[in-house]
């Protein structure tokens, strides 16, 4: 029996063409790197801490919106601007940004959601300000923040495998950079704020549905410990926006919404690609030097290999990012090069989804018939995107550096596999390294696939169950483990796992449970949960958006309201019939 599974390598969670990774002694418990990236969940907050996070009184915040200043100087001084003005669609050359003013949304406007963590923790603002009319105007494009000179970014990209030419911010406006009290610099962007020179055939708007999804998911990902852009606020309007929700010709009138989102940088692989493709090599160099200077402080500007080191950093960080997506079953949905950040954070939340039954072929975008962006294909797609990044860098690399860069890219698969191995070992509470660990993990995933066991809850329930209950296979109220245990080989796997755990010296069952509950979330933004919140939001009832936002801010802590709402229970039957609404 065991032989069948031995053949199953990590390819189950990775891309099938990758070579299986050797089991390396790379993660000893003394190695700080083993835990450095292990999410915000390293220290699990108590229920009291969760409550106080929401009622904490922050001193030293800004109490007057007129004192909140942003600046566009750095970007405007670093790069030439589009010489043409106005929001009409055009081909733009020799610049990275066009001046573009947001188009105010038609009122009345409503504040549908706001992130206290971002408002206070990043923007230094008093939460009370979010209730003011000025705030609504500032974060929906009706008024410009002091210091703001709004810009739309020109970029290109490979979409679904092919070069798509000029793309650019078609419905987003960069408002400015904010330097906060912690000394961090954040770039503020409105999404859904109207036409820009890059709108192509679009209307520059975003609807409530897609905006609720972006707001909730980017915040949820942050609290899961996955690098991501953040969302500060969600404003909904009465402005009619017509969308073909499933690309099937059924037009529907929805309402416009705007999200204020933040990232340390919004530059993408496509930002470099467009410059390389149109032969704007000086500008390509300028942009690279800027990004390295601002965001890659470990790279010296005088290093002749700086672009190579930059590439190597992005390759590594992208491998780590995608491994983290896999650790929570996140499928981005549109991994085009223009949706891939140069800082390797998750950006551009569109038709994403969290995998429910474990299935490497899970595709969140129902129109993606070929499954190009299935959850299990993401590692491979990451490699494709990094190949395109290398092509964009080639004009500024020597021939020798180009060869070295290819070798770096070859190392991507190993980096990815090592990280995945580390993550799944942690998800199973394993310490140290045993030569059978890869098999133990692959065997479990294979059983999950066969039984369609829920990805999130299988790992969560393995974290919560005691070794004794496991031994007795007492899965009362553990619905995911109950499903898994129907597998004909379940007891073989269980014996291996229990034996492996029993060999861990200096470990107790309680310690194991605690380690595991710190890395295996109990709540993720399942599609049906988002959908229920969206339906209410479309009727101006934002209570469920708020509830989800609150709960997903502590995804590793069991919460009464979440349990009452059934967020950790077997998904309701209607959830099976849902399709992801793609258009945004
Ligand atoms: C919280 O801050 C507000 C000002 O934002 C202040 O009026 C209030 O007294 C503070 N409350 C506590 C408990 O410190
Ligand atoms: C790769 O990236 C991860 C995550 O940011 C980091 O912890 C690690 O040190 C990096 N490794 C190398 C070799 O740069
Ligand atoms: C991702 O990129 C595609 C173009 O490749 C773009 O149409 C889409 O809007 C982007 N997704 C999101 C959610 O912004
Ligand atoms: C979903 O996939 C289809 C088919 O590949 C593609 O045309 C569409 O743009 C995708 N949806 C989004 C939002 O990217
Ligand atoms: C199963 O485990 C639960 C605790 O979760 C316990 O209350 C119950 O008595 C156990 N059942 C059996 C048959 O051991
Ligand atoms: C267990 O703990 C003891 C004492 O702290 C230590 O000497 C020993 O190396 C530990 N063993 C393992 C396998 O970590």
Automatic annotation (TrEMBL):
Keyword vocabulary terms for this entry: ATP-binding, Magnesium, Metal-binding, Nucleotide-binding, Nucleotidyltransferase, Signal, Transferase
Coiled coil start-end: none
Cofactor: Mg(2+)
Claim: Iron is one of the keywords in the record: no
Residues in the signal sequence: 1-23
Pfam families: SelO
Domain of life, per lineage: Eukaryota
GO molecular function: ATP binding; metal ion binding; nucleotidyltransferase activity
InterPro entries xref list: SelO (IPR003846)
Keyword Transferase: yes
Family per similarity comment: Belongs to the SELO family.
Record PANTHER family: SELENOPROTEIN O
Listed name of the protein: Selenoprotein O
Native species: Stegastes partitus
């Amino acid at each position: 029996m065991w032989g069948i599974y031995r053949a199953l390598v990590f390819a189950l969670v990775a891309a099938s063409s990758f070579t299986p990774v050797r089991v390396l002694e790379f993660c000893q418990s003394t190695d700080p790197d083993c835990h450095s990236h292990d999410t915000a969940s390293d220290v699990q907050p108590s229920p009291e801490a969760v409550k106080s996070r929401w009622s904490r009184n922050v001193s030293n915040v800004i109490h007057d919106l007129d004192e909140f200043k942003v600046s566009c100087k750095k970007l405007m001084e670093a790069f030439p601007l589009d010489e043409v003005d106005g929001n009409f669609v055009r081909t733009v050359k020799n610049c990275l940004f066009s001046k573009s003013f947001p188009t105010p949304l038609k009122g009345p406007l409503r504040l549908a959601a706001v992130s206290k963590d971002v408002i206070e923790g990043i923007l230094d603002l008093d939460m009370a300000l979010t209730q003011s009319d000025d705030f609504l105007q500032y974060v929906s494009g009706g008024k410009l923040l002091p210091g703001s000179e709004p810009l739309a970014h020109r970029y290109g990209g490979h979409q679904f495998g092919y070069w798509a030419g000029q793309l650019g911010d078609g419905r987003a406006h960069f408002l400015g950079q904010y330097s906060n009290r912690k000394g961090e610099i954040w770039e503020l962007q409105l999404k859904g704020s109207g036409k820009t020179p890059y709108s192509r055939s679009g209307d520059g708007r975003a609807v409530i549905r897609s905006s609720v999804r972006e707001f909730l998911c980017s915040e949820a990902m942050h609290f899961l410990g996955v690098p991501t852009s953040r969302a500060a606020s969600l404003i909904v309007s009465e402005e009619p926006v017509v969308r073909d929700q499933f690309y099937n010709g059924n037009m529907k009138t929805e309402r416009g919404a705007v999200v204020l989102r933040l990232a340390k940088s919004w530059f993408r692989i496509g930002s470099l690609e467009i410059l390389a493709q149109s032969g704007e090599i000086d500008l390509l160099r300028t942009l690279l030097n800027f990004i390295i200077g601002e965001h890659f402080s470990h790279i010296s500007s005088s290093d002749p290999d700086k672009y190579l080191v930059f590439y190597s950093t992005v390759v590594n960080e992208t491998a780590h990012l995608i491994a983290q997506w896999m650790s929570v079953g996140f499928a981005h949905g549109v991994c085009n090069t223009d949706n891939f950040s140069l800082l390797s954070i998750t950006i551009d939340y569109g038709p994403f989804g969290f995998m429910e039954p474990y299935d490497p072929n899970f595709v969140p975008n129902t129109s993606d018939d070929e499954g190009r962006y299935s959850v299990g294909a993401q590692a491979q797609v990451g490699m494709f995107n990094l190949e395109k990044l290398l092509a964009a860098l080639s004009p500024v690399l020597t021939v020798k550096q180009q060869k070295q860069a290819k070798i770096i890219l070859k190392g991507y698969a190993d980096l990815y596999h090592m990280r995945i191995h580390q993550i799944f070992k942690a998800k199973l509470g394993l310490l140290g390294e045993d030569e059978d660990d890869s098999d133990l993990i692959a065997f479990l995933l294979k059983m999950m696939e066969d039984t369609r066991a829920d990805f999130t809850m299988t790992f969560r329930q393995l974290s919560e169950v005691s070794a004794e209950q496991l031994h007795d296979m007492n899965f009362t109220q553990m619905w995911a483990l109950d499903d898994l245990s129907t597998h004909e080989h379940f007891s073989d796997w269980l014996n291996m796992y229990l034996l492996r755990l029993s060999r861990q010296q200096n470990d107790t069952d309680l310690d194991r449970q605690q380690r595991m509950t710190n890395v295996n979330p109990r709540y993720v933004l399942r599609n049906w949960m988002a959908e229920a919140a969206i339906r209410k939001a479309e009727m101006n009832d934002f209570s469920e958006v708020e509830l989800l936002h609150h709960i997903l801010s502590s995804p590793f802590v069991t919460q009464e309201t979440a349990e009452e709402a059934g967020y950790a229970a077997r998904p309701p039957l209607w959830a099976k019939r849902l399709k992801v609404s793609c258009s945004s």
